[in-house]
Design goal:
With 304 residues, this protein is an all-alpha fold. Helix content is 56%, strand content 0%. It is elongated and about 100 Å long. The mean pLDDT is 90.
C-alpha cells in the first residue's frame, strides 16, 4: 500500500478504528458515509415519482412519516415507497396511521454489539450524569426500541448509581437495585417501567463521583505501598505471645472516647495518613463532609 503495489478499496458497516489493523488503518484514507437527512430522502422520493410517472399515495403527514421510518437510509426509503404504491388502490391515498399499519415500521439502526450499542449507552449514561431526565429517558427508550436486553440496561443503571451519584444520594443505589428486582419479577413489558423510574430518579438526583475517585486513589495506594502491616495497636491479641509482642497495646476503644471518636491512627506505621474520600457539598454528602471536618478538627486537637 505504501509504494502503490496494492490499491485497497473497501466498505464496511464496522467502525474502522476497531475493525482494521492499526498499521493498515494508518495507510488508508477513511471516508465516512453519513445518514441522509430528511431533505435528501425527499429528493429521492421525488426522483422515484418522476421515474414512475405517478405521485406517492400519501398525504403530507404520511409522507413525513415515511421519511422518518426510512431512518436516513435511501434504499430503505425507496423500498417503503414501493410498498406504499403496491398497497394503494386506484385513487387511494393513505394518512400516517394507515401507512404505519401497512408498512409496520423499519427496525432502527442499532447493532447491539457494535457502534450503535456503545454510542447509545454512552448517550444514556452521560445524560443521567448531566442531570437531564428527558434526554435520559429518550436514550433509554431508543435502546429498548432497538432491541437492547433490559437486563443490560439494569446493570448499567446500577453502575450509574454508584459511579455518578454515590453518597450524594445513598438511596440511588437502593432505587436502582429495586428496579432491577422489579424487572426480574414483572418481566417485559411491565418491568421496563421500573427501569424507567430508576433512570428518571438517577437523572434528578444530586451528583457526586467522590466515592469513585476515592476508590481509585485508595487502590493506587494499596498497589504502591506493598504489604505494609496494620499498626499493632489495632491488632487483636488472642495469645500470650501476641500480647508480649505488643498486639493491641494502646488501642483506644472509640465508644469510650469523648464523642465516640479517639482520633487514633489506623494506617500502617510507615505510611503517612492519606485523604482519599473528599465528599462534595451536594445532597447527603454535605452532611458527611461536615462530620468528617469535625472529626478532623478533633483529631488535630488530640494529637497536640
Amino acid at each position: 500500500m505504501e509504494d502503490g503495489t496494492i490499491t485497497l478499496i473497501g466498505a464496511t458497516t464496522e467502525n474502522p478504528s476497531f475493525a482494521l489493523n492499526a498499521a493498515l488503518l494508518s495507510r488508508a484514507r477513511v471516508l465516512v458515509f453519513k445518514a441522509l437527512d430528511g431533505q435528501a430522502i425527499e429528493r429521492l422520493l421525488e426522483r422515484a415519482e418522476t421515474h414512475e410517472g405517478r405521485a406517492l399515495p400519501l398525504d403530507a403527514a404520511a409522507r413525513a412519516s415515511l421519511i422518518r421510518m426510512s431512518d436516513g437510509d435511501g434504499r430503505a426509503a425507496l423500498t417503503l415507497a414501493e410498498e406504499a404504491w403496491r398497497a394503494a388502490k386506484q385513487g387511494e391515498s393513505f394518512d400516517a396511521d394507515t401507512l404505519q399499519d401497512i408498512l409496520q415500521r423499519r427496525a432502527p439502526v442499532y447493532d447491539k454489539d457494535r457502534d450503535g450499542h456503545y454510542n447509545l449507552i454512552s448517550a444514556l449514561h452521560k445524560s443521567v450524569r448531566g442531570s437531564d431526565p428527558d434526554a435520559s429517558l429518550y436514550w433509554f427508550c431508543r435502546m429498548l426500541d432497538g432491541g437492547e436486553d433490559p437486563r443490560y440496561l439494569a446493570r448499567r443503571i446500577v453502575r450509574m448509581a454508584v459511579e455518578d451519584i454515590g453518597l450524594a444520594d445513598p438511596n440511588a443505589l437502593v432505587h436502582a437495585r429495586a428496579a432491577t428486582e422489579a424487572y426480574e419479577q414483572q418481566g417485559s413489558p411491565e418491568g421496563e417501567l421500573a427501569l424507567a423510574n430508576a433512570v428518571i430518579y438517577l437523572a434528578c438526583a444530586p451528583k457526586s463521583n467522590a466515592a469513585y475517585v476515592a476508590y481509585a486513589a485508595a487502590m493506587r495506594a494499596a498497589k504502591a505501598n506493598g504489604s505494609l502491616p496494620p499498626p499493632k495497636h489495632i491488632l487483636n491479641a488472642p495469645t500470650k505471645l501476641m500480647k508480649q509482642e505488643g498486639y493491641g497495646k494502646g488501642y483506644a476503644y472509640d465508644h469510650d472516647a469523648p464523642e465516640a471518636f479517639s482520633g487514633q491512627n489506623y494506617f500502617p506505621d510507615t505510611m503517612e495518613r492519606q485523604s482519599f474520600y473528599r465528599p462534595t457539598e451536594r445532597g447527603a454528602e454535605a452532611r458527611i463532609k461536615a462530620r468528617l471536618d469535625e472529626w478532623e478538627r478533633l483529631r488535630r486537637e488530640r494529637e497536640e
